[in-house]
Amino acid sequence: MTHAAEMLDLYPRDLDGLDRTALIRCIEECHSCAQVCTACADSCLSESSVADLVTCIRTNLDCAEICETTGRVLTRHTGGRTEPTRPLLEACAAACRACRAQCLRHAGSHEHCEVCAEACRRCEQACKDLVATLG
Predict the structure, then answer these.
(1) What is the mean pLDDT of residues 91-117?
(2) C-alpha span between 27 and 66 (Å, rounded)
(3) Which domains does the chain show, CATH number per domain?
(4) Nearest-5° angle of CA 82, CA 83, CA 89?
């Protein structure tokens, strides 16, 4: 059991109809993607062709911050507050989509970009899946 799942199990109220599985998956994918994007940006900074990776680095860092924020907000997403959640999830999915596209441009030369693109794909899908459960 993950920490997100464990904490939601201990939450003293119900989740007001939220899909618990989708919520947990999204929290976990957001935090994972933030870590991978940060590591990818750091790896890009260590490449000899760093000047060619400036846009990728900025996109990685933007995506990392958006994913981390989304994961934190979702972690305290209890009591049925869906109004701010939908646009946040949509923004996170968009950031992941942009980061994935940028990383795929470099994936053939930099394996860390390939790993990052996959993490972004998973996070984007988790955000979309959670949005679909919001009604």
Answers:
(1) 97
(2) 12
(3) 19-76+83-133 (1.20.1270.360)
(4) 70
